[in-house]
Amino acid sequence: MPSFNLSRLEQCIRLVPDFPQAGILFRDITPLLSEHFASTISAMQAQLNDQQWQQIDALVGIESRGFILAAGLAQAMQKGLILVRKPGKLPPPVISQAYSLEYGQDCLEIAAQQTPKRVLLVDDVLATGGTLAASEALCLSASHQVQGALVLMNLASLNQYTCQNQPVHSVWTYR
Ligand code: AMP
User: Fold this and answer.
1) Is the CB of 26 under 6 A from ligand 1?
2) Ligand 1: centre distance to CA 100 (Å)
């Protein structure tokens, strides 16, 4: 596993006030990805122990930054990859779930009728928890077994979300 220095990685997350709308402090991971992609994946990988990883068959990447992180983790851990996408992107049959996020309303979809797997949800930021809750509900509707969720940043002051009654794994938690 490539080594990582958490404070060095954290310095590469750009804080953008009032984006995409007033009052939101947007956490931009694109500088982190461009400088330290492999180390970022290692830092996420390290949030679960070997036994926890053994109980996961596939990573669920949530559109769109979750795709990047879940794909890196799937490659590193030799796991499968399942996509949760914005509406109209996946071909039928799909299952849909409406949800609200920190800035607006949206809907997510997952492929129906796929082989059920033990999955870990992956995204960059946990804010209100709407996105992860909708993704968790979609996975359960699609008969997947949800083992937990993993994010880079948990904005814990904005949510009380737990995944299957377990705290969300996160590299950084901001209270
Ligand atoms: P939520 O559903 O409120 O937990 O929002 C999580 C989703 O919105 C994730 O997919 C994030 O990529 C995005 N998001 C929400 N808040 C932020 C933020 N402050 N900075 C960057 N992305 C955010």
Assistant:
1) yes
2) 11
| Alpha carbons within 13 A on the beta-carbon side of 66 | 24
Nearest to 136 by CA among 117, 164, 165: 164
61 lines ligand 1 (CB under 6 A): no
CATH number for the domain running over 49-174? 3.40.50.2020
For residue 65, indicate whether it is catalytic.
Answer: yes
- Pair 52, 147: CB distance under 8 Å: yes
pLDDT score at 102? 59
- Statement: the pTM of the whole predicted model exceeds 0.70: yes
Q: Where are the chain's structural domains?
A: 49-174
* Whether residue 102 lies in the annotated active site: yes
The dihedrals phi and psi of 32, each to the nearest 5 degrees, come to -60, -45
